[in-house]
Amino acid sequence: MMSSKIFHMETVGQIVRAKRESLGLLLRQVASYLDIDQAILSKIERNERKPSKENIIKLAEILKLDKEDLLVQFMSEKIAYEIADEDCASKVLKVAEQKVKYIKSNLLKN
Considering the entire predicted model, what is its pTM? Predict the structure, then answer.
């Protein structure tokens, strides 16, 4: 199991490519498992295309990565790219964290 501390600043694509290569798997093998064209997987690895959440889960499985760690990387990347150009990005993240806690606590009550 890989710790998320290992790849905080790496992109999902970099993580996937490095792990695939370390396992000796070919693009076509992993793409076939995901049921996507190998050109699409290549674009995912080069950060030219974003994978689906379903593909992230499958990638974690085939590449023997911790599913939660890879999902955290995937979701945090989505958020980071969405707000990176905003001057108030750090403030947005702090408020979003508070909102997540509020939403979760209200869901537990219902």
Answer: 0.81
